[in-house]
Amino acid sequence: MSTETNTVGALEVAALKHAQGCRAYLILDPASKEALALDVHLDQAGEAAQRLEADGYRLRWMVDTHTHADHPSASALMAGHFKATRVAHAKSKHAGVTHLPDDHEPLALGDGAVTIRHTPGHTPDHMALLTPGAVFSGDSLFIGGVARADFLGGDAGQLYDSIHDVMLSLDDATLLYPGHDYEGRTHSTIGAERTGNAWLQIADRDRFVSSLEADAPAEPANMAALLRYNTEAIPFPATISASETIKIVEQGGAGTIIDVRGADELQQAHIKGARHIVLDEILERTDEVRKTPAPRLILCHLGQRAAMAQAALAQHGIGGLTVISGGIMAYAQAGGETEGGDPGAALEGGGCSAKAPPPA
After folding, report:
1. Hey, which of 9, 159, 209, 344 would disulfide with 272, CB 3.0 to 4.6 Å?
2. Which CATH number among 3.60.15.10, 3.20.20.210, 3.40.30.10, 3.40.50.920 corresponds to the domain 2-213?
3. pTM of the model
4. Mind listing the pLDDT tens digit for each residue in 65-93?
């Protein structure tokens, strides 16, 4: 993970980049030493807390722009640590949220404020945040793309309205900070997106809707477990049974499995689509672990090495780790399908971005 900091008016914006493509932001007021944290991934909690504490900031607001279906939120953890106010839209119904802002409501930050805008589309509870000179678009408008709107009550027509009524009403020089980017970027401008984003060249609302609804990507892997964590505060289990693992694989979630066995063992039997990171290299390849959608299911022969990997990764701030009880042996004995030969390529599941629009 890495951090990039820019000055936007009287504020500083620290963008935290996650290997999975997620973007989190610390909106900092240097004068008052107050801060707002936005869409922080569970893996980024330690990094975000370290930055705030090292620079003497008080976290006042902990905000999720929407219900995340592709990664675990650090909001509960960070709000508890800093005694910050948790913020989400009323339609989110997140356990532990204590402030449900109205549209256009300002959240005070020093002598200024961050303004909430309700921007449904990707999800019904979606919000964007505005500061002088910047918009934090969450999962609505991306750099060169837009969010998907095919699950969790999403609505492509509402997404079109939110983008056109809120985002495109802003000046061209307004900085755009999206909730995801899969090419390493942290920001663009409204002007650059207005002219260069293919989705924004579709002026007709009906065509935008039909294009977005066509050929939807796969749902994020392990979405049900993520929603339980993000909305109900139900923690990820330390272990999972072989039979439950089989269900996840059959639903397309093999890419959430990290197999820590050696190469010789993989040749004997492996789960197609699982990611292979041998235990001895696990701490040298943490970015690959982070790219794996949480909850990450850790696999070995019987379970002991998986537990070792779980403990080592947790010490390095990586969350959402679950050991497959009994390892590959229990998985095969329970009827799980395995293959011999080299491991298959990892399948990471669908993200939150829509595919490119069809040609005009």
Report:
1. 344
2. 3.60.15.10
3. 0.91
4. 999 999 999 999 999 999 999 999 999 99
